[in-house]
Amino acid sequence: MTDDGTGFDVAPGDGIYTAMYERDGITVVWTIETDRPGPLSATSMVKIQATASYLGRNREQREVRVATMRANPSYVGQR
What is this structure's pTM? Predict the structure, then answer.
């Protein structure tokens, strides 16, 4: 994953890393969002989110989303 502003990653250098995978009509997007812009090694916490989207029975767009927070155990500094 890179924070380069391409694909689902909206802006380069904004601290949001995104990747996407599509198969059999299901699209999964992973997002890692840091608590501040910069490299992952310099952040104290990240939000990890996965979103799966697909067309339902009546051709309506359906979505499932899960997220969690993760602390950087090797971070040293102020938050």
Answer: 0.73
